[in-house]
Design goal:
heterodimer, A: 299 residues, mainly alpha, 11 helices, B: 326 residues, 12 helices, globular
């Protein structure tokens, strides 16, 4: 072991095994039928939603009093809504907003949760006590109650909806990241980095953060699913993004009045939300198994 | 022998007591933090809480209300006043009905309690059964089916599922009422509760199933199970007596996580099904900008969550001998 050449080989082996780890994660994901089909479905649906409007160029906000609540026709493949607007165009436009809200909320959720978890785990002592008590307090408020209060107070702009969803759902990620940070803090390479005089910020960023990335990827994937569901529920209560801006959530809320006469209006956005959320959940579960085989068959 | 026994019991009692006292004070701090968060969110609004008042109020009315609510005082002073009267059980007066806030909450609380308690019991019973079936048939079709069902349950928006249920069971088949709490007869009550409970359970059942499954799989590989098997115990005895008994202990801990989720889900379910509980109350309060009521309901619900978590902690520490040294 004292032989430097042997040490070098060890290091190379570590590198090779790291590469193998990455490729096996991908192989494992490909083998997981549910997760892999979810991934393919998600790629297709995102293409449809973000590229589709360039092909189907009907204006989603153009009303037509003469053609309200139509069924399937050639000019409106998915029919029209209560104001005569084209449902296909609205589904795509609404999908864009819904997915962007999902991504945005996920980004802030991970940012807040990741920072809180890493800082509390790494610095310990009073930082830990304050941040984790705050996390616990936030977990004790049923998130819907808090979201309602915040949206009533701060208004319902898309950015506000994104921030409110993030502010009421970062706690789970904070706990996961906190646990991981505590675990890696004790590892030898972190001790080595500290012993060599790295600043705490550098140690956190260069050595601990990379170890946590797999958990963050999993949490983010599941976080998008959660954000989309929350947005739709907030919209249902009339506190989400307001019409005429279409989202799947407010399309669903609007469709409620016509559910008996034109059920298609209520079925479509609901199915779309359910499928996208389902796919993100399957992908998240699959990624967890692929990135951490020990977890296999676990939660 | 007798002496050492009584000593250890006393020792355990004090450790247990210390744990409970510590947990109790932590709970008080949590409640305090939550009330601060809620209070300050409402006061951070542009224009303060007066912006939450009715839009049709005249300038004089606004000024009068502001005076009456003490809105001209600094936030810290107002929070102190609120906290002091809240400690005495007075959560202020509802701006929309003029009743005391605590009275309005107490009118609604029994309904939410019924709904969430029944959902929790059903979720735990059904969830544990499905979780055990899943674990015992690991990676077979039963396991895959249950897992698929769990993910679907977590993925479908609950209000949408509720509307589809109403469409099917109330409108098409006319089996169940679409809203209300039913009259005094038990059958009627059960009928009007069926759909709200099922919808609410979709947010808790999958978690219990998954948790039971992984807990069961963990226990089944431990030494004492191997010992039981090698001693020739029947497979059913091993599974249902030795393994399940131990696997259930961690399942108790997950109940603490599910309670806030149930209360959050109740907001949607109560709104869809016209169930007169606290969930609908907070929606009405938010829409009517009833500032005192919003604050009161939020804090009340949080106290509920924290108290029930405290009870779960006690049960958990009694069940699992390893937690005693906590």
């Amino acid at each position: 072991m004292s032989n430097p050449a042997a040490n070098n080989t060890d290091l190379n082996q570590v590198r090779v095994s790291a590469n193998i780890k990455k490729s096996t994660a991908w192989t494992r994901l490909k083998k997981n039928k549910a997760a892999f089909s979810a991934l393919i479905f998600l790629v297709l649906i995102h293409l449809l939603i973000f590229v589709g409007p360039f092909i189907w160029t009907v204006n989603p906000d153009a009303t037509n009093p003469a053609g309200m609540l139509q069924g399937i026709t050639a000019s409106h493949p998915l029919g029209t809504d209560d104001l005569g607007r084209d449902v296909l165009a609205r589904m795509m436009k609404g999908g864009q907003i819904t997915l962007l809200v999902g991504f945005g909320a996920m980004f802030f959720t991970v940012l807040i949760g990741g920072l809180v978890g890493m800082l509390a785990g790494y610095y310990g002592k009073w930082v830990d006590i304050i941040l984790m008590r705050f996390t616990e307090a936030m977990l004790s408020i049923p998130n819907f109650f808090l979201a309602l209060v915040a949206l009533t107070v701060f208004g319902k702009s898309p950015l506000m909806v994104v921030l409110v969803i993030a502010f009421t759902s970062w706690m789970e990620i904070a706990r996961v990241v906190y646990g991981e940070t505590l675990k890696w803090k004790e590892s030898e390479f972190v001790e080595a980095s500290e012993a060599l005089g790295s600043s705490s910020v550098r140690t956190l960023y260069k050595h601990i953060f990379p170890q946590i990335i797999p958990s963050i990827i999993v949490s983010s994937t599941l976080g998008i699913a959660w954000a989309i569901l929350t947005e739709s529920a907030i919209s249902y209560l009339g506190l989400g993004i307001q019409p005429p801006t279409a989202t799947w959530g407010n399309m669903l809320q609007n469709a409620q009045q016509y559910i008996w006469t034109t059920p298609m209006l209520g079925v479509l956005p609901g199915v779309a939300i359910a499928l996208v959320v389902l796919a993100y959940n399957f992908l998240g579960d699959g990624l967890r198994d692929a990135l951490d085989p020990k977890h296999r068959g676990g939660k | 022998m007798k002496h050492s026994l009584s000593f250890s019991t006393i020792g355990e009692m004090t450790i247990m007591g210390q744990f409970l006292v510590k947990r109790f004070f932590q709970s008080l701090v949590l409640i305090l933090i939550v009330s601060i968060i809620t209070f300050f969110i409402m006061n951070l609004a542009p224009g303060g809480p007066s912006s939450m008042m009715r839009m049709d109020a005249t300038a004089e009315e606004r000024a009068a209300i502001a005076e009456q609510l003490g809105l001209n005082e600094p936030v810290i002073v107002r929070y102190k006043d609120w906290l002091l009267s809240a400690l005495g059980g007075d959560l202020g007066t509802s701006l929309s009905s003029g009743q005391p806030v605590i009275e309005r909450i107490m009118e609604r609380f029994p309904y939410t309690f019924q709904l969430t308690a029944i959902t929790l019991i059903i979720s735990v019973v059904v969830g544990v059964i499905l979780g055990v079936i899943s674990a015992m048939n690991r990676n077979k079709w039963q396991d895959n089916l249950i897992n698929f069902g769990s993910v679907v349950g977590l993925s479908v928006p609950s209000f949408w599922m509720a509307i589809m249920f109403i469409l099917l069971f109330s409108v098409e088949l006319q089996w169940l009422p679409s809203s209300g709490v039913g009259d005094s007869s038990l059958v009627d009550k059960a009928k009007s509760m069926a759909m709200p409970v099922i919808i609410l359970a979709t947010s808790t059942l999958p978690t219990i199933v998954r948790f039971t499954r992984s807990s069961m799989l963990e226990v089944i590989n431990q030494n004492f199970i191997r010992t039981a098997r090698s001693k020739g115990a029947r497979e059913k005895t091993v599974v249902y007596f030795h393994a399940l008994k131990n696997a259930l202990i961690p399942v108790v801990s997950i109940i603490g996580v599910l309670i806030p989720r149930l209360l959050g889900g109740a907001v949607i379910v109560e709104t869809v099904f016209g169930w007169p509980g606290m969930g609908r109350l907070i929606v009405e309060a938010s829409q009517g900008r009833d500032y005192n009521l919003v604050m009161g309901v939020t804090v009340f619900v949080t106290v509920l969550v924290i108290v029930s978590n405290f009870i779960v902690d006690i049960i958990y520490s009694k069940l699992d001998p390893r937690v005693k040294a906590y």
